[in-house]
Specification:
Length: 328
């Protein structure tokens, strides 16, 4: 089998590549390296079943030939982060919407058998119910969430109109080794690990009692592969979560160290918690990695974050001023 992974040198994409190669696939990676790092796949440098191409997914003509003979596409390439999407909505639309249409058209013209789309739980905004199921209202709070949901709608529309077999996976709070170190005030794990390496206190938003459905990246990859193997989820949207929700205070307790508290931000839910009944029913999939084991795995590879920016209350305040400006 031949698979193609967009954003394959990124955080989640590189773990998807790991799993596909482990399962015997030949893998083509497309990445423009805007956030992905070639070093994320350097441990596969001698693997003849892996080909990496520095390409932009929006360049439909430039990527078309890479889809020849591909059985499955795993579409992870996207611009992430909240504040940059507020500052640069056109760029986010081009990457996350136009890029997704480009992928769909390349897959359609090359008769790809399955496409798995990395959707986002941010589409739920601040949900009314927890755990949150797939029928919850869609209420994106910022352009990143909006563009990821529009991409999801295109995926489902191409399935309906062109009979292209697509599945959309709404990820909840993914963490694990190789998580991004770039971006304006990035994901909580990268922020905390860089602070730990620097001996700085963890910058906890609000009082730290807010909870997140932290889902380990290898569980995400397992779910995507399972979806690609099943006809039961074609044309479906499924949550992918840990089956639990954990407080930020619990996270810093596991990491160990001092804490400083910064103001709560508008537009952020007090809880994220996926109802994973649907994926359990359709695929028989179950998350395997507990938060405790996941944090241990992160700490074992903490040197990955040695060059990441070290945030403090002052530079966070500057980096998130547009967050307060637009979402208050």
């Amino acid at each position: 089998m031949k698979a193609l992974v967009t954003g394959g040198c990124g955080f989640i994409g590189s773990h998807m590549v790991d799993l596909l190669l482990e399962k015997g696939y030949s893998v083509v990676v497309i990445d423009n390296f805007s956030t992905g790092r070639p070093s994320n796949l350097s441990h596969h440098n001698d693997n003849e079943r892996l080909s990496i191409y520095e390409k932009d997914i929006c360049d439909n003509k430039g990527i078309m030939h890479l889809f020849e003979g591909v059985d499955k596409v795993f579409h992870f390439a996207a611009l992430a982060d909240i504040v940059p999407s507020i500052e640069n909505p056109i760029g986010y639309h081009q990457s996350n919407v136009d890029g997704t249409i480009s992928i769909l058209e390349a897959a359609k013209k090359n008769n790809v058998k399955r496409i798995i789309y990395a959707a986002s739980s941010s589409c739920y905004g601040i949900p009314d119910e927890y755990p949150t199921n797939e029928k919850a209202p869609i209420q994106p709070q910022y352009p990143y969430a909006l563009t990821k949901n529009i991409g999801e709608q295109y995926m489902l529309h191409w399935n309906e109109i062109y009979k292209l077999p697509t599945t959309c996976m709404r990820f909840f709070n993914v963490y694990g080794p190789r998580s991004r170190t770039s971006g304006t005030y990035g994901a909580v794990f990268g922020v905390f690990l860089a602070q730990k390496l620097n001996g700085s206190p963890y910058t906890v938003v609000g009082d730290g009692t807010q909870t997140r459905d932290f889902t380990f990246v290898t569980d995400i990859a397992d779910a995507c592969l399972a979806a690609s193997d099943s006809d039961a989820c074609i044309g479906e949207v499924m949550n992918v979560g840990s089956g639990n929700t954990y407080s930020i205070n619990r996270l810093v307790e596991l990491l160990g160290g001092k804490v400083t508290y910064i103001p709560k931000r508008p537009g952020e839910p007090d809880c994220t918690f996926a109802d994973i009944t649907k994926i359990r029913k359709l695929l028989g999939w179950e998350p395997k990695v507990s938060l405790e084991d996941g944090v241990k795995a992160m700490l074992d590879q903490i040197d990955y974050w040695k060059d990441a920016p070290v945030w403090n209350p002052e530079n966070i305040s500057e980096a998130t001023k547009d967050w307060f400006k637009y979402l208050s």
